[in-house]
Backbone:
């Protein structure tokens, strides 16, 4: 008969097990505090000061928030709407595209699946600056830009388009580039989850009357991927709000032309340089 672990009088684990659990959690706790908790707390504290990186922070109280809410018209006219539009498209859009691509890759052979998955995942590892450099060449406003050169060759345009200068194109390019680089760790988690679903579930479902692949996704694949889908959703939301600097990286100026690509993660110069 298997012996039960000795527990203290309050129903908890003994001291040795507690120390062992503490030792396992300590590295994570230290890293979480160092890279997440402390920076967040420091950011909140700095929001009540005037800090230009060069000089020591000076206490400003609620002046930053008052300026933001009462004097900063650019924030409400451009920055906030741009951020909401970008997040609503990139978050759900990247999430759906990640799932669709993961499901499609799961249907092919292992070797091409590995190569394609690596190619899709690489942009998320390259970093925003590297990605923006590539796409700045692609969307260059002269005839040497690849997009303009292609359109001119097929006589689709008469003059090169200033893709990264004209405000009506900037947000669309930001969304396109962000979706292209959105296949991150959430995408890999979904792909791994789909590959590990028991094939017997699909066989049993078809015996019970399942008719097509769409029903297979709805009734088998998605319910079996709840942990991976939740993880992918969290990563998609975080990624959408962390891509705020993509507009400045693509255009090369801050603020972006007519604030067309300005978002919350990349403060515009007028607010940043306002002395308090």
Residues:
């Amino acid at each position: 008969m298997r012996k039960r672990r000795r527990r203290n009088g309050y129903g908890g684990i003994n001291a040795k097990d507690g120390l062992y659990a503490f030792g396992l959690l300590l590295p994570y706790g230290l890293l979480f505090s160092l890279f997440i908790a402390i920076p967040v707390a420091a950011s909140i504290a700095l929001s009540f000061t005037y800090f230009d990186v060069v000089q020591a922070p000076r206490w400003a109280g609620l002046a930053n928030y008052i300026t933001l809410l009462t004097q900063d018209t650019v924030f409400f006219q451009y920055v906030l709407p741009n951020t909401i539009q970008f997040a609503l498209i990139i978050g759900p859009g990247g999430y759906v595209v990640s799932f669709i691509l993961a499901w499609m890759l799961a249907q092919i052979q292992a070797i091409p699946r590995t190569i394609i998955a690596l190619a899709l995942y690489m942009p998320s590892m390259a970093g925003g600056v590297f990605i923006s450099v590539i796409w700045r060449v692609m969307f260059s406003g002269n005839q040497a830009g690849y997009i303009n050169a292609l359109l001119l060759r097929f006589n689709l345009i008469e003059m090169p388009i200033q893709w990264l200068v004209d405000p009506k194109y900037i947000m669309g390019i930001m969304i396109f580039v962000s979706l292209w680089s959105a296949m991150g760790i959430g995408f890999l988690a979904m792909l791994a989850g789909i590959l590990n679903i028991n094939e017997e579930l699909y066989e049993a479902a078809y015996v019970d009357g399942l008719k097509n692949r769409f029903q297979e996704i709805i009734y088998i694949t998605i319910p079996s991927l709840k942990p991976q889908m939740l993880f992918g959703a969290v990563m998609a939301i975080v990624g959408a709000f962390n891509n705020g600097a993509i507009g400045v990286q693509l255009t090369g100026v801050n603020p972006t032309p007519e604030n067309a690509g300005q978002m919350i993660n990349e403060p515009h110069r007028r607010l940043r340089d306002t002395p308090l």
Remarks:
- Strands lie at 49-50, 58-59.
- The domain at 73-272 is CATH 1.10.3720.10 (MetI-like fold).
- The radius of gyration is 25 Å.
